[in-house]
Amino acid sequence: DGGITQSPKYLFRKEGQNVTLSCEQNLNHDAMYWYRQDPGQGLRLIYYSQIVNDFQKGDIAEGYSVSREKKESFPLTVTSAQKNPTAFYLCASSPREGVNTEAFFGQGTRLTVV
Amino acid sequence: AQSVTQLGSHVSVSEGALVLLRCNYSSSVPPYLFWYVQYPNQGLQLLLKYTTGATLVKGINGFEAEFKKSETSFHLTKPSAHMSDAAEYFCAVSWALTGGGNKLTFGTGTQLKVEL
Question: What residues contact B64, with CB distance under 8 A and at least 6 apart?
Answer without folding.
Answer: B48, B56, B57, B58, B76, B77, B78
